[in-house]
Amino acid sequence: MEWQTFAHEADVGVRGSGLTLADAFAGAATAMTSVICDPGRIADSEAVTIECAAPDVELLLVDWLNALIYEMATRRMLFSRFAVDIDGHHLTATAWGEPIDISRHQPAAEVKGASYCELAVGRQADGRWLAQCVVDV
Amino acid sequence: MDISRLKRRGNYEWELPVAGRMRVPGVIFASRELLEAMDEKVAEQVANVASLPGIVAASYAMPDAHWGYGFPIGGVAAFDPEDGGVVSAGGVGFDISCGVRTLRTGLTLADVAAHKARLADVLFARIPAGVGSTGSIRLDARNMEAMLKGGARWAVQAGYGSAADLEHIEEHGRVAGADPACVSELARRRQRDELGTLGSGNHYLEVQAVNEIFDSAAAHAYGLAAGDVVVSIHCGSRGLGHQIGTDYLREMVVAAPAAGIALPDRELACAPIRSELGQRYLGAMRAAINCALANRQILTHLAREAFAEVFPGVGLPLLYDVSHNTCKEELHLVAGRKRRLFVHRKGATRAFGPGHAELPREFAAVGQPVLIGGSMGTASYILAGAAGTGERAFGSACHGAGRAMSRHEATRRWNGRTLIDDLAARGILIRSPSWRGVAEEAPLAYKDVGAVVDASGHAGLAGKVARLAPLVCIKG
After folding, report:
1. Cβ B74 vs Cβ B91: under 8 Å
2. How many CB atoms within 10 Å of residue B476?
3. Which terminus of chain B has fewer Cβ atoms in its 10 Å neighbourhood, N or C?
């Protein structure tokens, strides 16, 4: 699983890739965490389960990231590790993280929502899966 | 941006002619320099908005326009329900009614100079700022309903501020037509701890000094003079607005094909105004506007408490409060006919000109205050809505400088701690829970706000009244 952010003029793009669609979704989630703070600073001491379903895999990516945004906002947590399972257009996942510690995590910006801008999910020419979109900060 | 395909209407007004699926032309208000510096995506997004059903007159972009999602940031578009017009959750965005309000303090630069560090510390202690911060107010279900319907009026009734504040807020502090029943449980849950919080990113509370007056009549009407100290607060509807944006974007994306709407970009998710979904979104989005107005009102109360601690007896009357990300039902004269339109402003400010019925009596002769945010080290501006702007861009103007580079690039170039020290050496005190957050918001990561406000004036949207220099910035 690999992840990166990509430039957008007002906000930030998040991108994950991997051997499976689930890996790419986990990578996109890690990239989204990196928008807030260094994922390496977040302990994986608490687990939260997430489930979502959508009409297609692109909407499923947006739903997955928005579910994480909701959990981060309401639990005041940050997540650093993700186990994702995707069956068709249905996702179940576990996200591991810990409560926000402002002085230790130094969170730079909260993510308000995952958008449909630059949204792409699919298999690349090299066979690897890619999942990306722009998130609003 | 390649400007060869644009038709020049004037020195500061450029037309993107109708092509492809566009129903109306695009119009970009900018100097040639600002226009050339804009991303190609701005023109693409202006054209996409121009293709939406029921759009009236043109798809507009303000001088600070930049690549957004769906609409450009700085995009303005009005839709007529009589012509199958739409309301777009993407056209409002996640941070519903994010906006700026400015308070006068009655203090001068000389009064504040010796107490600046203490003021910064007291403000930082009292204003919840940054990711994960929580407010002290918990609303039960009944009070949540009342807040969503009542906005800043609810906040004043709850003891945060005075009735005089309400006359200096768009729609007198409460937008009509909010329907809490259209707000999901998720959105309410997300707001539970966030009322009275500043947020993060580009949100801030700044103590500023008026360092130049450009229009003395308007400055007099606004109660401003050179050397005056003011406070500006930039924030929005917090988690409730973000979740309403999320909920309805999703629903509109899925429902668009059945409504016969072909979206050129899924982020332009919209629904006919005269549809059950469109009406539900309007009810929820207006509740989020009220939430933002209540939030800024509570932050105002906290700022007043902080000032009273440092400067006993001082009052902070509200100059004005403007919202940036909204869809508002307004009457506009189009080709000689008065029409009831749904005006989307995405990263754009309502800027009604002199004589508009919505304005407080004391601003009637000079136009609405238009509050333009800065970026810690640079200036902020107060403009006045220009005469005739109603016919130019449905009474709208720019909202800020706009980013010049990505957050990633900003953190590559600047270190937050060094930046704070450099700004302190220039007399600007920053208080923030996150150094990285400060680096991402480095002043030079933003465009030249002076060029943007000059273009706004030359384009006849809003003219300069006063420039504000930062003294203290509480950064989320």
Report:
1. no
2. 27
3. N
Q: Which residues pair with B108 in a beta bridge?
A: B228
> What pLDDT digit, counting tens, does each position of B113-146 carry?
999 999 999 999 999 998 888 898 999 999 999 9
pLDDT digits (tens, 9 = 90+) for B252-309: 999 999 999 999 899 999 999 999 999 999 999 999 999 999 999 999 999 999 999 9
Residue B6, sorted as left (phi over 0), alpha (psi -120 to 50) or beta, turns out to be beta
Q: Which of residues 263-322 of B touch A (CB under 8 A)?
A: 265-267, 269
**Burial of B4 by CB count in 10 Å (0-12 exposed, 13-18 middle, 19+ buried)?**
exposed
Range(s) of the domain holding residue B45: 3-404+446-475
Q: Let me know if residue B176 belongs to a domain.
A: yes
* Residue B133 near chain A (CB below 8 Å): yes
Tell me the two tokens of residue B280.
């539900």
Nearest Cα to Cα of residue B29 among B64, B55, B67: B64
- What is the C-alpha to C-alpha distance for residues B292 and B403, in angstroms, rounded to an integer? 23
Q: Which has the closest alpha carbon to B385: B457, B293, B466?
A: B457
Residue A63, chain B, CB below 8 Å: the answer is yes
pLDDT in tens, A73-92: 999 999 999 999 999 999 99
- The pTM score is 0.97
Name the minimum distance, in Å, from the CA of A99 to any CA of chain B: 9
Inter-residue contact B372 to B449 (CB < 8 Å): yes
Contacts of B267 in chain A (CB under 8 A): 115-117
CA torsion through residues B421, B423, B428, B431, sign: negative
Q: What CATH number is attached to the domain comprising B308?
A: 3.90.1860.10
CB pairs A-B closer than 8 Å: 136
Domain CATH code at residue A111 = 3.55.10.10
